[in-house]
Design goal:
Elements lengths: L1 H21 L22 E6 L2 E6 L7 E5 L6 E3 L6 E3 L1
Antiparallel strand pairs: 1-2, 2-3, 4-5
Length: about 90
Amino acid sequence: MKITRTLITTAILLLLSLALACGGGGSGGDAAVGASCEGIGASEARIACSENNIIFCSSYTDYKYKVQSECGEGSTCQVAEDGKSASCM
């Protein structure tokens, strides 16, 4: 079960990274669950950390930030320097 969850999380992060690489800028407010990321294109996405959760926003989420993964106890949510991925470390 944990392997399946890890594989799904990795796949989603890779897809989001690809979407970000194909996209450009776009304003969109503060990154928090339920906040808007309107202004990004249909093929763009945003990823961030909020309350130790990995959150993402795209047209798929109706331009609202949604929790993608919860970082477990003892790990911390971190966004990569390039802003294209996030993980629990």
